[in-house]
Amino acid sequence: MLAKPSRDLILTVSLTVTFVAATLFSLALSKGESGVAAIWLSNGVLAAMFLLLPWRWSAPAAAVCFLANFLGGLLMGNPLSLGLIFPVLNFTEAFAAAWLARKACGQTMRLTSLKRVAQLLLFAIVPATAASSVVAADVLTLFDRSFNVVLSTWFYAHGLGMAIALPAVLLIARADAVRDFHREWPEQFGLYCLMAAVSVLAFVPVRFPTPIVIFPMMALIAFRLGPRGAAVSAMMLASISSSLVLGAQETHTGATWSLLEKTRGIQFLIGVNFFTSLATALAIADQKRLKRLWASRTRVARAAQARAVAAGKAKSEFLATMSHEIRTPMNSIIGFTEVLMKRSDLPEGAGRQLTLIDRAGSSLLTVVNDILDFSKMEAGEVDLSPRSVEPRAVAQDTLAIVAEVARRKGLDLQFHTSGEAERQVMIDDQRVRQILLNLLSNALKFTERGRVRLDLDVTVEGGVSTLRFVVTDTGIGIPTEQATKLFKRFSQADSTVSRSHGGTGLGLAICKGLTELMGGRIGLDSAAGFGSVFWFEIDAPHAQAEAAPAPGMRKIGELGAKVLLVDDHPVNRELGATVLTLLGCEVVLAENGEEAVAAARDGTCDLILMDVHMPRMDGLEATRLIRGLGGACATIPIIAMSADVMPEMEERCLKAGMVDAVGKPIQIEALHAVLAKWLDHAREAAA
Length: 687
Fold this sequence. Notes:
Among the domains are: about 1-175, Arp2/3 complex 21 kDa subunit ARPC3 (Orthogonal Bundle); about 385-540, Heat Shock Protein 90; about 555-685, Response regulator (Rossmann fold). It is built from 20 helices and 12 strands. The strands form 3 sheets. The protein has a 5-stranded mixed β-sheet, covered by helices on one side. Strands 9-8-10-11-12 form a 5-stranded parallel β-sheet, with helices on both faces. A two-stranded antiparallel ribbon has the order 1-3. The chain has about 675 residues and is α/β, with parallel strands linked by helices. Helix content is about 60%, strand content about 10%. It starts with a helix and ends with a helix. Its main location: membrane.
């Protein structure tokens, strides 16, 4: 690529030569009796020189052009006074057009749209040529020239000439005009040669209107070579057609026209074809720019999407890692605390201390679970599992969980139902219980005296029951202006609340998300100092058949279960063995996946509790190998027991051949429920 001084030098020489050639061409072929040329393209070239070149280049070039204009007029027979007046008027007109063009189109003068071309014509070329026409007509009356003739001839020749030349030169000189229309030089050369041939053939004096062939040719060039190609074609057409038409005695139609009529006709033809092809080229260029912009924005959007996916993956990996690292020690804290609390030989005061440890562990587990649940909801990974249940039973189960907390605080825990609360409906009872547990836990947390009441109202309409749960407390209440933000993530009514009562501020956001996922609504009515009323309602279709009541809690030992416990952490193995023994199971221990496969091959176990993250061979690979053994190993229940409870890991466990998953830390009731479910299932399958 040429350096800027070299480019400026080439452009200066090219514009100077073009101006001189255009001046001599116009004076030689189209000078009329009034002394005014009927075709004048030179001022458009001169105005482009002022716009494209810095002053250190345009000033000397303008001096050369002024001298050429002066000498050319003298050679064509102008007296000395007129020979000086014409260059002064021309340079004043060109400078005014350049100054107005910068005001109308900006400093860059990039003609990238029809709007910019129209601004150049209307606010620069027309005013400059109209003003110079009036001045020229007034001055030439001193030399016995007709004011009207000079005015019309000057304005038509200079206005139309500059309208063709100035945009054409600006487009030819701008390198960015060919950005989207790059073609190999043989194609460009061939198209321009074809344009020259068409320009000649269009003015062969025959009776057929041959000039109509110009338009399709210029349209083709506009499609292939863009705005610059349209400008070059217009300049070629102007020079060739003017030479042919002005030198001929008759037009191609056989009519005899005057010189003025010929020049105006040819200028009009050139202008129509030029601006038509230029409009086509600019429309195509704009379309290409939009495609390029769309492609660029698509790349940016894809990059942003990739970053978002990577960030989501990193967040999931971080949450999985932190969940695993937090839950592993919590497994020992909560698990051994529950085991010790069931002993009756504890010294005095130890029970209360264990209760405090249990509360602290449960609070920490709630924080971790809230964060994980909210992460799942944001990722859209929460799935509903509706089954046939009684709304009353779901409410009573939840109340049983929080009953001990209410008893310790001396609160009256009440329950009331209305409507058909015993009718079997299809809902995800675990998610409903999660919402209820959150609302009841909050009510108990923020109520120091009085009562907490749960109301269940069931309204039946057709085959659907509307379940409305209302939790009312006599606690501290919530100011009305702060109630609206409670269901937003990380929000609490008072920043001091987290200090005195704890919590992440995610619980109610999770409740809102789960309720809306089930197609329901949630809200509250509260006032500071008068307690709070939280409610949510969902629609539940009726179950097809009445479900049998769930069996009561049974000891697993009654089933004669032998459980293979696989875990690489010695403390987890000790805790797991203690809990399973407490539940009446015979326990077989394995430290890694290889030992698990070997133990499963013996075929003496009823169920396998499999850790996932283990050295040497992880739980997923071990499960696949056990399933591959065939026989009883292909159907034995394998349950994942891991601190990694992210949905991705649960899905990988199921794909590997596991049937269910329980998270760490171990909670005796939850573990009992899962084991009882799959041992009963295995017994039924064997029967």
